[in-house]
Amino acid sequence: MPPPPPGTEPGPRTASVARRPTLKDVAGEAGVHPATASRALNPGTRHLVNDETAQRVLQVADTLGYQPNPIARSLKTARSASIGLVIPDLTNPLFPPIVRGIEDVLGGVGYNAWIVNTDNDPARETAAVESLRSRSVEGFVFATGRLHHPFIERLAAGGTPTVLVNRRLAVSDIPSVTGDDAGGVAIAMRHLVDLGHRRIVHLAGPQDLSTGVNRLRAFRQALEDHGLEDSPARLKLCSAWAESAGAKAVTELLDDGVEFTAVLAGNDLLALGCYDALAGRGLSCPGDVSVVGFNDMPFVDKLSPPLTTVRIPHYELGAEAAHLLLERLRAPDRTTRSILLPLTLVDRQSTAPPRLL
Amino acid sequence: MPPPPPGTEPGPRTASVARRPTLKDVAGEAGVHPATASRALNPGTRHLVNDETAQRVLQVADTLGYQPNPIARSLKTARSASIGLVIPDLTNPLFPPIVRGIEDVLGGVGYNAWIVNTDNDPARETAAVESLRSRSVEGFVFATGRLHHPFIERLAAGGTPTVLVNRRLAVSDIPSVTGDDAGGVAIAMRHLVDLGHRRIVHLAGPQDLSTGVNRLRAFRQALEDHGLEDSPARLKLCSAWAESAGAKAVTELLDDGVEFTAVLAGNDLLALGCYDALAGRGLSCPGDVSVVGFNDMPFVDKLSPPLTTVRIPHYELGAEAAHLLLERLRAPDRTTRSILLPLTLVDRQSTAPPRLL
DNA sequence: CTGAAAGCGCTAACAC
DNA sequence: GTGTTAGCGCTTTCAG
């Protein structure tokens, strides 16, 4: 049965008019004490009450359209069936699927997520978390992790159930769900090497983020594995995951006369900037240079050429993070663990002509 | 001063250890009654208390790091300084900027937004709204409006402060903030006509949404204004704002031998599908057909050719919606009004060769 | 101007 | 099994 239409209820049979029915109303109508009604309504305590009485209470609650008041419940229990979800920037297409994954899992067990946007501002982050804690959220999922992040470290150390998603901290005892960046870089590099590339450039992302350092480290490892020279000139550190940073890096490479036939971009936005810079110099892609990105953002299949990229299962990242947090809420003392999800190469240029070196 | 680091407070001088200080703690420390402390802490009632005492209370609250408990406050006042924000699909890049606009404005006056994703599912919507109402949100912003939407109509009619953003309802007494679709279509059509187009097709969006019908109506109006024939063949109704729907529509047009040199797509996703279908038939763009979209989604400037589109100021839409709702919360009886924000053409093909008809 | 007392709606000891 | 009581932390009458 759908909940009663808001604002237009004819009113329960009790005296009051348009007020939402309270537990006391239900109890009164069912002829029991509010405490009994509470026990009957609560699945966890229902066994404490006579089966018949319980049924009657449920029945009355249903006809009255009773909905427990979560505020009152929170005040009493200091729990809220909700968690905080801290996102650096919702307009980055990376994050909405993570949010969806988290919400879907939480929703399945009656939990909600408070979503907050920090805009990458630590002050906003601390303020938001403080505000959420005062609302008795039971735990947090952070998508804002930095390698060194004292605030989250303290929060977790203080016993607040905390899970990281997409990005990890350097201290590793906080559970996290991330993509297997090392594995992703490995398949991307193998792809490039298989195409014949020997001079591959890496546009590395911010080195205060686990994604940035892990992909860079894996890039170096891959160079070694494939017997390629690890030339400092073929590495560009980008200070932000932004198109402009990618464009700047590639422009500098070209200006410096660095020779390369392929680019492993730390993510798709850097790859986009790379496209821009190459086009700006009249270089064709993949004719002159092959580019591989990271994330498989929406619409990168519409670029010309379509961007080959390493797909990260963001929805699943979120779903797993939610599971991890729920598990932690149920069994706070279980040892923590982190989850690495496999990445896959989305090859959109497999029909491209072999590289001319 | 930053809030005390979570979980590691040395503890206030009162007996308790890691507990958050309560109003009673502050009152005790300041040597006043909790009620007085409450009055002093609350800007609205501060004038009721002696200036010195008030200062002392504020001082103590500060050193103790006191943060009022919003749950207790909500239980007492049935207010929450928060509103519900109902989004059909957060992964649609349209909506995150709206969310940001709303949050920025609300945050400025101490309000929060609960964001819920309905996934376009009415059942999820009613459930989410019910849940938010029970959390005492003070009002709602809906981005899920449909022309006929009994649920929202009842909610608003029942007195719940409600604002629509991006999409309106047919009943117009619910305040809304939307883009000026008619104006947007007019400039888009003028653009196409100025390029020399006479046979222009419209891919119309869902006709249960205000955006869909308004753009279609404006398209017809523009045909009339420019003295162009309003041929039913040059109109395609798409049942969803989706790439696939746009592709299907254009494919059908081509199959049916409909002659056209330009397409006004109801939004960018339909335009994307249009690109696909044209490419699939070996037609070049803008060589053979010009396309104009709607929204200026991220990265449509990266398509080839870059998509000319009507930009909707989504962030501002959100910001205005928040203002409207806040105004409504403050003065519930003021007459409602709706806001139309101007749209602008983002011409990315102005250098394109003139059309060969 | 301040204190006392009540109560928002619910749950958890503790009786019976 | 069920009722009684108390209280989560706050605001708001009502006295004084």
From TrEMBL, chains A, B:
Domain HTH lacI-type, residue spans: 21-77
Keyword rRNA processing: no
SMART domains: HTH_LACI (SM00354)
Keywords, in A-Z order: DNA-binding, Repressor, Transcription, Transcription regulation
Protein name listed in UniProt: LacI family transcriptional regulator
Organism: Nonomuraea jiangxiensis
A molecular function GO annotation: transcription cis-regulatory region binding
Record's keyword annotation contains DNA-binding: yes
Stored Pfam families: LacI, Peripla_BP_3
